[in-house]
User: What shape does this take?
Amino acid sequence: MRVLSTRRYPGPAFDELADVEVCSLAELTEPRPDVEGLIVANEPVPLELLPNLRIVANFSVGYDRIDVAACAARGVVVTNTPGVLDAATADLAFALLLAARRRVVEGDRLVRRGDWGSSWADGFVAEEVTGSTLGIVGLGRIGRAVARRAQGFELRVLYTQRTEIATDLAEYRDLDTLLAECDAVTLHVPLTPETRGLLDARRLSLLRDGACLVNTARGEIVDEDALVAELVSGRIRAGLDVFAHEPHVPRALFELENVVLTPHLGSATRQTREAMTRIVVDNLLAVARGEPPVTPVVL
Ligand code: 8YV
Assistant: This one.
């Protein structure tokens, strides 16, 4: 089975693909009837150029940029990489929470500027993380990994999602109540038509003064203009790994000390990225053998 891959994905599993060609989507301009498998990283699939495509193996748990329904209508299976990036993403959410709340990056900048001129006792006081209340929006695999970490930090943990579940990890609240009750809120829902703009200006205004918003999910879940306005006002803090128009980051954020910015690093550990490639390759090999894919996206 000939596979087209938008990059050389990391890790040894990639070398198990016998017939693979690395080609970006921008380079794919002519019809390719020889291609039966495609590897993308949550990128739009040019179905019209791939008439004999059988599988889109997505190097990503999120598939919001892939038209899964259009693929299904053409008999093309789409797979993703669930499970293996939960720990890495939860770790980053915690890193952003700690960094934003404890002013870690702001402190680093102060030291590098040579502005640390007085004793440790002056200024730079932050709000305690331990004992504060964390709200998790979406208690799926990644949300639960965050909740487990939160227990180690002795946080009170609330969660919200469409359906309330029985769990010892967190107490349920509806979204508006959760936003108003928490010292920090972290987002772990996929981007869907229902979650696009979920945190609009009204909901952002429900956050407590000084609260911290962490987003390692998708930028489009938050009204970015409204978030920038809240951050510019200085009313809240944030740790942001994702943005509405990546790699564009609103310039107004660059000057702010109350926001920590990272370039979509949620799954970016060697172990996690190699495990993602392993799943991508396992899905392709299964379909090549005529077997069902390992981790299909089910509509
Ligand atoms: C990827 C992600 O870095 O899995 C996801 O949903 O956002 C990240 O792991 C990104 O999608 C590119 O594959």
Observations:
- Residues 41-42, 59-62, 85, 264, 266-267 surround 2-keto-D-gluconic acid (CB under 6 Å).
- The first strand starts at residue 2 and ends at 5.
